[in-house]
Structure formats: C-alpha cells, structure tokens
User: Which sequence fits this backbone?
C-alpha cells in the first residue's frame, strides 16, 4: 500500500509537519510512505497549451497512492493558503466536469484520506468555538467532490510554543498511522457500511420496543394509547429521540476538536 502525505504549511518543521510525520512513521513496515512539502513546489494552475510538470508529477503520485494524508494548519480561521492554492490548481484534475459544468468524482474515486489541522486555539475554546471546523470542512468538500473517502481527522490544538507533540496526540497519530493499511477501497467499505446500518437499526428497534413496553405501563391500558396509532406515535417518538442522540454522538466523535 502507498501512503502519500501532503503538507500544506508555511513551515516544513512546524507542528503540522510533526503531526504528519507522526502518522506516517507509524504506518507498518512493508507499506510505502512519502511526504510532499507543497510549499517547496512552484504550483500554478493549468494553462492551455502550457506544460505543467509539477502538477503532472503530483497527479501521478496522488493516483498511485491508496491513502492520502492531508495536513494543513488553520490560518485566519480557514484552510492554509498553501493547501488551498494546491487544491484550487488541482481542481480540473481532481474531478470530471459534465456538459453543464457540474463536477463528478473520477479517477481518484475510492482513495482514502486522513485530514490533519493544527491551531493556536486551545482545546476547550476549540470545542466551543470550532475554529478548526472551516479548514476541515473545506478539505472534506474537496475530497467528497473527488470521491475520496475521508476516514479520520486529527486536530492538534494549543500549538503556541509547542516544540513536540503532546504524548496523547503522538499516541493518536500512531494509532491512525497503524490503522492506515486497514483502509480498503470503496467496495469493501460499502458492504461494511450496510452491515453497520443493519446492526444500528436492529439495536435501535430493540431499544425502542423495550422502552415502548416500559412506557405502556404508564399509559392507560385501554383506549387510544393501547391501539395501533398510539403504539405508532410512541414508537416514532422514542425512535426519533434515540436516533437523534446517536447521530449527535457520532458527529461529535467523528469531528474531533481537541
Ligand atoms: C497566517 C496565520 C494565521 C493563523 N490564524 C490562526 C487562527 O485563525 N486561529 C488559530 O487558532 N491559529 C492561527 N494561527 C496559528 C496556526 O494555526 C498554528 O501556529 C499552527 O499550529 C501552525 O502550524 P505550523 O507549526 O505547522 O506552522 C495562524 C498562524 C498563521 C501563520
């Protein structure tokens, strides 16, 4: 498996670079890893008839990789300019355009990606203010347009004066790096998601029916609440509350802020 790290930061030895290295260093032996420092390249958009060897080379490496690790600091509450400029220049190559100018996933479909951002903002403030949401969302939007599956996010907060990753973050990066070879192409992923969905619905229905039995003891044993429509309303309400709680929990777990 090939893992391509793309660093979109001003500093090649900054916290973002340390984080990217910590992930790639943990990728088990036998897999190929490589880091491209985007700031060191002369990246410019394609112009008709003009060769663009830098983008050609990046495109080749991106196509050859199974997993991308995109690392960019949070600048001015958004994605770093280096990463944004690179993605802007790659747009024509990342997606396919139809006759109406709408974009569709094309050759990069099914590749997996891990995204990383870092910021001065502290963990608690970031949880409340969500400073790292815009850069991560921006990366997600590009990946989604290209059909790339983003599997993990890593956020490093409180980077002011940071020389070395805190042990907890280093451990998280190592965990993600070790898990990278397990990220498979979309076909396997789709099956896994259907099985997960089935499991979730089975557990939710069981929990809902269990709660419904308990609630039935509090409701009148006869009349509307004991009939079909009463059952239906209680089931729908309980199911909705449980589903909202699970989705909320999943979104908090998925979008890490600390
Ligand atoms: C131009 C610029 C803008 C920044 N804007 C923000 C910001 O809006 N919020 C924040 O928390 N940190 C901000 N920072 C701090 C960086 O996100 C932080 O230093 C990051 O960890 C830098 O990564 P690096 O060490 O790899 O360069 C900014 C830094 C720079 C240079």
Assistant:
């Amino acid at each position: 498996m090939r893992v391509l790290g793309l660093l979109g930061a001003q500093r090649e030895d900054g916290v973002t670079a340390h984080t990217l290295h910590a992930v790639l260093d943990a990728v088990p032996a036998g897999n190929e890893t490589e880091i491209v420092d985007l700031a060191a390249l002369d990246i410019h958009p394609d112009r008709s008839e003009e060769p663009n060897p830098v983008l050609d080379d990046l495109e080749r490496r991106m196509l050859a990789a199974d997993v991308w690790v995109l690392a960019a600091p949070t600048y001015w509450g958004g994605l770093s300019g280096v990463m944004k400029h690179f993605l802007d220049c790659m747009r024509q190559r990342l997606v396919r355009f139809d006759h109406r100018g709408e974009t569709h996933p094309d050759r990069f479909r099914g590749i997996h990606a891990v995204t990383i951002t870092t910021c001065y903002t502290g963990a608690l403030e970031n949880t409340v203010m969500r400073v790292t949401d815009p850069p991560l969302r921006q990366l997600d939007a590009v990946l989604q347009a290209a059909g790339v599956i983003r599997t993990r996010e890593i956020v490093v907060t409180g980077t002011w004066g940071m020389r070395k990753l805190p042990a907890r973050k280093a451990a998280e990066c190592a965990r993600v790096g070790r898990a990278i070879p397990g990220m498979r192409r979309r076909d396997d992923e789709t099956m896994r998601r259907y099985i997960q969905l089935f499991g979730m619905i089975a557990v939710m229905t069981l929990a809902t029916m269990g709660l419904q039995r308990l609630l039935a003891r509090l409701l009148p044993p006869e009349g509307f609440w004991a009939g079909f429509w009463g059952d239906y309303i209680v089931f729908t309400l309980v199911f909705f509350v449980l589903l909202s709680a699970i989705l909320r929990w999943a979104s908090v777990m998925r979008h890490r802020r600390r």
Notes: DSSP finds eight helices and nine strands in the chain. The chain has a mean pLDDT of 93.
